[in-house]
Amino acid sequence: MNIDVIISADHIKEEYLENKTVVVIDMLRATSVIITALANGAKEVIPMLTVEESFKKKMELSKLGIPSLLGGERRAVKIEGFDFTNSPLEYTKEKIDQKVIILSTTNGTRAINLSLKAKKILIGAMINANAVVELLKNQEEDIVFINSGTNGEFSMDDFICSGYMINLLCQSHEHNLSDIAKTARYIYANNSDVVQYIKNARHYNVLKALNLEEDLKYCCKKSIVDIVPIVNKSSKTISIISK
């Protein structure tokens, strides 16, 4: 299969994604939140582009008697009136079990919504990388790893996460990698200590300055969650792929 990497949401060309499987990555922190929330019992996650749309969706669900919670950030800071920030550590089973999470973030939920022309959209991060790769091994479509990036720009953290997954994919089979996919694999292969590689990244240091070191530690852990979220393109919701 062919494997490619897109370096930020601003670089997504929607037609290019047609008939391909996409893995959206925003390891710091939106996709780590989605994976964690679903692993801890959330009914589904709804990725929203704007704060206004998020509040509207919550009202719609409330009228239907569906319990929901608002989560997300703007510039890594909690949104006023939301229940949670974008910290995966807040999404505990006690708080979110069987509830719908309405999530709106600066980068990750935007990348997801821009990927809807893909044949299949999976949600990936360091924490579920091996589960994603095991699923990808059993398909025929070309794969595009979409890095959400930071405010439209390249992000070292998402790039090395792509490299980690590509490296895992290539351990058992050789695939046709684009130049940027080869580079991502090379970066990971030579920097398997992820924290040491991304500690000078701008977004990493923004989170560190906000005293979010525990989030950073969690999001950099490799393959600790054994689920793969998938986007239902018709409803624009995210749930766990049934095993």
UniProtKB/TrEMBL annotation:
<dbReference type="GO" id="GO:0050532">
    <property type="term" value="F:2-phosphosulfolactate phosphatase activity"/>
</dbReference>
<dbReference type="GO" id="GO:0050545">
    <property type="term" value="F:sulfopyruvate decarboxylase activity"/>
</dbReference>
<dbReference type="InterPro" id="IPR005238">
    <property type="entry name" value="ComB-like"/>
</dbReference>
<dbReference type="InterPro" id="IPR036702">
    <property type="entry name" value="ComB-like_sf"/>
</dbReference>
<keyword id="KW-0460">Magnesium</keyword>
<comment type="similarity">
    <text>Belongs to the ComB family.</text>
</comment>
<protein>
    <recommendedName>
        <fullName>Probable 2-phosphosulfolactate phosphatase</fullName>
        <ecNumber>3.1.3.71</ecNumber>
    </recommendedName>
</protein>
<dbReference type="Pfam" id="PF04029">
    <property type="entry name" value="2-ph_phosp"/>
</dbReference>
<keyword id="KW-0378">Hydrolase</keyword>
<dbReference type="GO" id="GO:0000287">
    <property type="term" value="F:magnesium ion binding"/>
</dbReference>
